[in-house]
Amino acid sequence: MKTIAANLNEQFTEEAFSRQSVIFDEIYSGNTIVNYKRERVRAHVLQNLPADSFILELNSGTGEDAAFFAQNGHRVHATDISVGMQDQLVQKVKTKGLEDKVSNELCSYTQLHDLKNKGPYNLIFSNFAGLNCTDELDKVLASFSELLKPGGLVTLVILPKFCLWETLLLFKGKFRTAFRRFFSDKGARAHIEGTHFKCWYYNPSYIISRVKNEFELIGVEGLCSIVPPSYIEGFAEKHPKAYRFLKAKEDKLKSRWPWKYIGDYYIISLRKK
Description:
- By secondary structure, the chain is α/β, with parallel strands linked by helices.
- Helix content is about 40%, strand content about 20%.
- It contains ten helices and nine strands.
- β4 (about 120-125), α5 (about 135-140) and β5 (about 150-160) form a beta-alpha-beta unit.
- The longest helix has 27 residues, at about 1-30.
């Protein structure tokens, strides 16, 4: 029954993101805080990534990160379950002339044993909570080691079970949003473009405990723990001085307790032993 439910959720997730794929870049490309998040994640990756690396990207979306890493001298195999997202990625890669740097494959991250291009890779990368769309994260993590070179890296951007900013929405009367992570063991309902699916929340300890025999922890950073989440629309534009102040504080405290654990996301990196 769990497998059937997981497959259904993947179908709904694919439908939702395929519907959004044609407007995804339009929605998010001009969002100051989304751009801040991308810059943070990319800087985190690049500080550990060897030159001329081969990257396996999971839930690659429209290819924004794949294009960035390709333009910085790396090769990327970009995978996603969404047909619409893959179509947008292919168009973007052609427009930017990156066909020799970016390949793509329609594949679920829960089925990486079926991946045609098995690398081996220098890095497995997943951005912006794509892996929160499954309750089989343990299965995904278990597939990483055989796809990586010795000393290979994993960098994941995940939604934790507690977000300070989200909980503070309690004081604005947004009770459902404020508490949605607290009661999500069976999955929290999400919806995009009218399609509903479930997502789950995972703390860093969940990931670390399941890969400790094969991977060592490099580090954890909080993302939007002091800077407001991007869904608090227009904050950076309406309050530029406050945004710059909070950004400076987060950049300083991102790897310290408790800030690395209470953001909207966290970035976690691990190295294969």
